[in-house]
From TrEMBL:
Gene3D superfamilies: 2.60.200.40, Probable inorganic polyphosphate/atp-NAD kinase, domain 1 (3.40.50.10330). The lineage of its organism: Bacteria, Bacillati, Bacillota, Bacilli, Lactobacillales. Its EC number is 2.7.1.-. It holds the Pfam family YegS_C. It is an enzyme of class 2 (transferase). The keyword ATP-binding applies. InterPro entries: ATP-NAD_kinase_N, Diacylglycerol/lipid_kinase, Diacylglycerol_kinase_cat_dom, Lipid_Phosphate_FormReg, NAD/diacylglycerol_kinase_sf, YegS/DAGK_C. Belongs to the diacylglycerol/lipid kinase family. Its cofactor is Mg(2+). GO terms for molecular function: kinase activity. This is Diacylglycerol/lipid kinase family protein. It comes from Lapidilactobacillus mulanensis. PROSITE patterns: DAGK (PS50146). Residues 1-135 form the DAGKc domain.
Amino acid sequence: MPNFIVIVNLKAGSGEAAEVWPQLQQELKQAQIHYTAHISEYAGHAIALAEKISTEATAPTVLIVVGGDGTVNQVLNGVRRSENPNTPIAYFPAGSGNDFARSLNLTKNAGEFVKQLKETTQATPLNIFDVNITDSENPIYRQQKFLINNFGIGFDAHVVHLTENSTTKTNLNRWHIGNLAYIANILTVFKRQQPFKLTVFGEKTEYFEHAYLTTMTNIAYFGGGVKIVPTADPREREIDLIVIEKPSTPRFLKLFGQILTNGHHLQSPYVHLFKADQIRYEIEPAQYGQMDGEDMGKHRFQISAVNAQHPFWI
């Protein structure tokens, strides 16, 4: 059995992680699984923890993440920076959205999770994206990230930005109803968000004058259970890029309803889906971006991505 090291984000899931962590500790103790735990204490701390732990590992090690999609993303990026970039990751979902766990039907029951932890004998390689991000208006801005869920520009990212930078979510988190902040901001963004220009490069370059939302995704879900691309699967080595143009308000509301319910939005003439092994696209003017639920700020994004793989202990 490998060494198990836990990285916990106690603030994840409006405090849900802080509630389930003692339950998981008890189950690990009863199963006689020895582990070391580290608490993520500030934004980005999980990246530094994962990089240090993976680099210093001298025996087979599995990093257990207790938190949400953003915490998994941070741990993945920390591991990939380390001297042991293929250190496996296990995931106990305790966030607000948990879309990565949802896409893989991962359990939220502490007892079942520990049972699976013991029964797993080897890691499963899953698809991730190796993403390069630049800003055509700012040559200094340059980031290289690994992605497990999705990278969104436009409507959804605008919602994330307002929510993550408001005191409303902080106050609601005290009552474990932080998701209400997202719902309130959806209405605000619907009034404010303007269409933008998008260029998708490939064998045939395609231009969109009225893009409203564009999401590059590795999984079917975004936004805490919304099935944006029903066919996306992290077990397959494929990049999905969905582009939604803004129609009239009545048609947009119908389209939004289809996204939330039956997936028929993919049949709309306002929706375009690209599938590829690698992809490159850019937007103008500057828009808000989000990566695995984390605010990326407002930039005139230029994105290039290729498929990669990482081992997960599932």
